[in-house]
Design brief:
11 helices; mainly alpha; globular; 3 strands; three-stranded antiparallel beta sheet
Length: 197
């Protein structure tokens, strides 16, 4: 049975920090030194030491899902596709978010109605609560915060646009090099979610 975590409710999209982290790694700076820069110097401009620690830990997890081929490609991608790399890395770190992308976002692309309503997000979580005793034990507030976090991530990745009553679902313009890399690396589920296949 899949292991789920609600830890994403404390995370942000952290796109700028993710980009900076990759840049520092590209300069040959170690993860330990980046962590020290984050906490000691507040390099990433977080509001507290605890937030700096959390941010650098999460961003490192995302970076660790990638390899040199992603690192090499990243600087040459446009910002929209760089955001998708951050999103894919975030998805790879969280099984529930991966399920959400595949079962909800992908379905919206397949159906083509381009409108994601709150009740569709609720239906996803209701089904997960039926399927997983772990998720069934979560409070209503946890589920609500997590659904908000998922939508925020997709908005910041330019895949959703808040329209008030619903979110407009936007199909990404995936760079062919990134598409090929995801295919090559076996990220077929994430690719299917992004392309609506």
């Amino acid at each position: 049975m899949a292991q789920y975590s609600a830890s994403m409710i404390t995370h942000s999209f952290w796109f700028n920090e993710f980009s900076q982290y990759l840049e520092l790694r590209e300069q040959g700076i170690s993860d330990d030194d980046i962590r020290e820069m984050s906490v000691g110097e507040n390099y990433f401009q977080q509001q507290s030491k605890a937030r700096s620690l959390d941010m650098v830990r999460v961003v490192k997890q995302r970076v660790d899902t990638l390899d040199d081929d992603y690192f090499d490609l990243f600087p040459s991608l446009d910002m929209a596709n760089q955001k998708l790399v951050n999103l894919v890395a975030s998805v790879k770190c969280n099984q529930l978010f991966d399920d959400f992308m595949y079962e909800v976002y992908r379905s919206e692309l397949l159906l083509g109605d381009a409108k994601l309503h709150s009740y569709e997000v609720e239906a996803f979580f209701n089904q997960k609560q039926v399927d997983s005793p772990q998720i069934a034990a979560w409070t209503e507030q946890t589920v609500r915060r997590l659904s908000g976090t998922f939508k925020t991530f997709l908005r910041e990745a330019d895949l959703l646009e808040d329209q008030g009553d619903y979110d407009l679902v936007k199909r990404p313009l995936l760079d062919t090099r990134l598409e090929f890399l995801l295919q090559t690396k076996g990220a077929t589920r994430q690719l299917a979610a992004l392309l609506g296949r």
